[in-house]
Amino acid sequence: xxxxxxxxxxxxxxxxxxxxxxxxxxxxxxxxxxxxxxxxxxxxxxxxxxxxxxxxxxxxxxxxxxxxxxxxxxxxxxxxxxxxxxxxxxxxxxxxxxxxxxxxxxxxxxxxxxxxxxxxxxxxxxxxxxxxxxxxxxxxxxxxxxxxxxxxxxxxxxxxxxxxxxxxxxxxxxxxxxxxxxxxxxxxxxxxxxxxxxxxxxxxxxxxxxxxxxxxxxxxxxxxxxxxxxxxxxxxxxxxxxxxxxxxxxxxxxxxxxxxxxxxxxxxxxxxxxxxxxxxxxxxxxxxxxxxxxxx
Length: 296
Hints:
- Among the domains are: 27-50 and 83-90, no CATH class; 115-198, no CATH class.
- It is α/β, with parallel strands linked by helices.
- The protein is built from twelve helices and ten strands.
- The chain has helices at residues 15-24, 68-76, 101-104, 121-128, 137-141, 148-164, 180-192, 210-223, 236-242, 260-264, 267-274, 280-288, and strands spanning 30-39, 42-52, 57-61, 83-88, 91-92, 106-108, 198-202, 228-232, 245-250, 253-258.
- The protein has a six-stranded mixed β-sheet, sandwiched between helices. It has a four-stranded antiparallel β-sheet with strand order 2-1-4-5, covered by helices on one side.
């Protein structure tokens, strides 16, 4: 048998050209460097840095008042840092606003569900797909004649997103008629329907039962195959079971950063959560409670 024929390069293109073009694509990496925020003279964040790599789940944890929500809000454009830089796709984001996130390929959920009570579940999720609308979201939502095909496409996207989260049967219901855990799934579907490259999750496990939290963990791990995830969460068992890396804040500063194993063994983390006068080995075991299950 003779040697296999080599594929013919596309006209005007070589393998080297294609490799170079691939490497030249901006990385879907979120990098926050030297972030500091003060409110009325009170320091909320001091020189905080972290990197969320593509295809990884990065946990952000810390005791109450550590600055987690403030840093999350800086990443969302809700809070503007007094100093520091945010880099996304290898470019600095200056004067970031929440309404810019979708077209940047970033989606977020909030601590509450944030659903619109006067819209059905399906319509709520369609809002998250608006960056895919060619005729404009308002036209699609109102089903104006010029946007019929666009409206069908958005509804199809929203229905598929609900089906992925086992919530399709609630499509015609209003959020207020649904149990809180179902509302959380709808809010997550609204974030995922935009096909983001980065997902920002703010305490997604709040209000969930243990079995629901387990299902959420499996979902978050599966999402990392398609996007980077920044997870702000206080349920340590969930964090330690799904995260690739973890950054720990205390009093607005980073006190530890590393893999889940490194974080669990760090005395500074134990002290921050449980106080200085503690037995480190015993309380490190407390931090690991519930994390022995294999990652989904």
